[in-house]
Structure formats: structure tokens, C-alpha cells
Request: fold
Amino acid sequence: MLIGRSPNVLVVRADSPYKSVRDIINAARAKPGQLSFASQGPGTSAHLAGELFKSLARVDLNHIPYKGAGPAITDLLGGQVDMMFATASAVGNLLESGKLRALGVTTSQRSTSVDLAKVPTIAEAGVPEYVAESWYGLFVPAGTPAPVIARLNAAARKAVTADAFRKRVASEGLIVSPGTPEELGRYVLGEQARWSKVVKDAHITLN
Reply:
């Protein structure tokens, strides 16, 4: 079962001259390859989100990989990089304290998180069709009997739709979206096809 989907957030420093996604696009087109975005490493969700942005917005950004989100965010705050497609949980406190500014969320719909509810999606902010989600699902070994899968699906659905669970994941902006095993299968295949193209077009390889 697909448990839910959560956004990455395009963030800049609070004193950054870039106030919107459109500002980023305009500056990147005026200065190809000079604006940089950080990630917690090659092939991570932040890296792929940035590469998808480059492709759909038709801009050239310089990817700066780090060994983890912490060092990447530290350098973003220090001005060594211009922006980052960070997870909501990693930058939530910095957004709340005003040290970072959120320009857009990467999901297809706005976040349900209180801190991000007014932040536009990147698609509505100027990059049509842009979607880059982190997602969580439950899997079982191949060959698990269908009645067992159905029972687990029902139990998981009950758990993730409970108020206690929804409140627990609200800070991450998780969009709870339980469905059938078949829906998860189709979703995974779609994600594989979409990101395989991004990886191939951007010539991304593991270190």
C-alpha cells in the first residue's frame, strides 16, 4: 500500500535576492551555470528534484553534492550555494525561525503542513508539469497469498487514516493517500519510468 507522499521544498536564505520560483528561472537564464543548488548527495531526492527542475524550466544550474543534508544546509545558510530542494522535515525549523525562505513545494498539490500551506507548488509558480515527490509504501515478499495482502492492506489503511498518525506526520507535510496494492504497483512503475529518464538525460551515475 502507498502510505503517502511528501514534498521537497525549494528553499533559499532569508536574505536571498530570489523571492520566487520565477526569480530563480530569470536569474538562471541570465547567468547560465552560475547559480548553484545543494543536495545531500548524487542520486538523492534533492538532486533528482533539481535535475527535473533544470529540464522542465530549461535552465542550467550547478549541482553541488554534499555528504548529507546537514552539511548542505549549513553551506546554504553560509552563502556557499544559492538554493536547495530540501525535505520539509530537514528545513522546517529553519523556515519557522526565518533563516530560510520557501519558494515552492515539489508535490502536485500544496502541502497540508501549516508552515507550508501558503507556499505554491513549483508547477503553479512557473514550471508546468513539475512533480517530484518523496513517498512511503509497504511491501511484502513476492508470492505472499492474496488474502494475507488484503488483510495487511486493511490494517495499514486503518492505521494511517487514524488521527494520531495524521497529526504525527503533519510536520513533514505528508499527504496520506492509502490505496490498493494494484494502485501502488502502477505508481511505482510510473515513478521508475519518469526518474529513469531524468537520470539518463542528466547522465547521473553513482560514485
User: Anything to note?
Assistant: The chain has a mean pLDDT of 91.
